[in-house]
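dumping these here so i dont lose them again. two proteins, back to back, each one seq then structure tokens. dont judge the mess
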Amino acid sequence: MDFSAKLSLPYLLPNQAQKHVTLNESLRALDAIVQLSVVSTEQRSPPDAPSEGDRYIVAAPGAAGWAGADGQIAAYQDGAWAFYTPQTGWTAWAEESAQFMAFDGHDWIELTVGSGGSSPETLGINTAADAVNRLSVRSEASLFSHEGAGHQIKINKASESDTASVLFQSNWSGRAEMGLTGSDDFLLKISADGQSFAPTFLAQSSTGNVGIGTWSPTAKLHVDGALRLGVAAAGELPDAAGVGAGGLMFVEQADGAGELAYSDGASWRSVRTGSVAS
């Protein structure tokens, strides 16, 4: 074998003349690709006035003296350009953009790291992140588990008039949203078109009132619309003691009539007459 398996560095051979040439060739390659830092990853053709030792990742499509060298490392050595083909897992620091790059076997990809070195400004997992969606995940599911006890997911907003919510979308169009949207009231709202939203459930922070179908509940439970209760025959009502005092049901009588009944904690009674429902 005349070359090393990974970096293709030429070996010195027995009885070889001018061994220093081969050794210098290996040192030149190591100087170019070890602790790799490139001037730019956006350059498609050689710069006009390169400095000795400058290195670039050739942007596609390569042109002029870099034609056909897409994705390769172009190093200016001894007054000429030398090209090195990256292998899977190689990393480089891009000086112009202040980004870490990694070669995945096909392309150079960004490994974004913040200025502090430990807090990434954006992170995309199997998808691209951007300035608004700084954490982006594309997968079948996402798991958040405990670390010895419970686990909380926290969504914080700056002020009452801002939004802290979870938005559910269909083909990138909003269909349901829950959270603190423009106030400190907890709201669940729905939409058929992603434009107009209607309230489904609202818990008012200042009063504790709960509204269904209304933006402004005025009672502990405020339902804007018809309310449908469970229906059962008189002899099939659930145990009143188990339901507890204050439970409501609609009772069907044997003669086909019906009436509203409430539980007093022991029996079901007619709301109209107070008598035991039977």
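---- next one ----
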Amino acid sequence: MCGILGTSSHNSAYECYRGLLAVQHRGQDSAGILSFDGIVHLKKEKGLVLNVFNKEELSKLEGFNAIGHVRYLTTGTSTLSEAQPFFLSYPCGIGLAHNGNITNFKELKKELEERNRCIHSKSDTEVMINILSEELVKNDTFGAIHECMKKIEGSYSAVVLLPKKLVAFRDPYGIRPLVFGEKTSLNGNAFSFASESVGLDVNGYSLIRDLLPGEAIVIEDNKVEKRVLCPKGRAHCMFEWVYFSRPDSVIEGKSVYEARIELGRNIEFEGEGDVVIPVPDTARTAALGFSEKYGIKHREGLIKNRYVGRTFIMPSQVSRDIAVRDKLNVIKGEIRGKKVILVDDSIVRGTTSRRIVSMLRSNGAKEVHMVSTCPPIKHPCYYGIDMPTESELIAATDTDIVAEKIGADSVTYQTIKGLIKAIGLKKEDLCLACLNGDYPTHIPEEVRKGLTRAREYEREADCKVGVI
């Protein structure tokens, strides 16, 4: 789950920078910006946006159009060679940044290599840019994107930089988010694309709408052309409203903040508690909704060190475990001797939940009842979220067993019905694959096995360094 930005304005690189800061929560591994003013300017490094760019670096990124990216590791390795945006000068000059996961990546990579296309990384984005570059030699912009959509499977939202053009497109199911904005200034109209509406807000753009599934938009000479090329339905990732997006974002016309309030209100809880404690930060809003519904006081019992990143999107279980210890501390007076209702956005692997429950107990909690605003996650995600093996997903077992494994007195999950009602979209318009196993696209068995092997290899590497 990455964050992408595209801007067409008189201050594009700086606006990309500010937009990337706004979507930094979507990726912490690397950051990059590509601009064009007749010459290609590219800056990308490992690390956070604030660490990668400074005033001097931004001043070098000249041009009316720019694209940017923050990376969350799903495919490839945590190296600079995987950082985006990517750029190709042959056979067609093109820059591209991508959010999502191409499920037929290996098949496409093999086909490219058979045509003597050299792939330098393990990134599916590099495969995408090579395919699009080839198609641009044979077709106009919309035709090339349409051909790509017919070949590429999986999830993708992308921003593309061509000479004098800024382009954005979204996969035929609209799995990954992408919004379009516009503003008017003394210099004329300006346009922007972003993974979330907060990436538009920070630069003063008005949210026009989300790109439609299978749609492409081309900005050239301050003019906008839109075409829906390859729509196959709607399968918007429910996890955007549960966890990934900022609460001040609006996705598919639905406020993330309001959805999370409703997620808390829709929980059917049968136990007792003295205090509702959210796991910061994404569960705060839902905890308010839960507290209002049940009339149980809401308190901040866990304080987050804001200089530690989001543990879910860290590249290994070791780094996640260490980060939990560094990230959270307990306000003992709000915990000691009380029946705590601990509200979190989701329970994925259970390791973070187990550590937090243990922290509360060691600081005097009488009881700890875990509430998840997301239904049980029982199946891997192949569309850009790090949930690759069923054996890692703790909710594959009974709720009582989950409670025992994380050390809680009870575990209560959101229902799928409650989730859908909170988001406010039709069930058929949401991707719920990680909950019910109903994948919107075909996932070859070899892809599933490959992701499982990769995860198991990561675990073995963690053990070998002696951390686990």
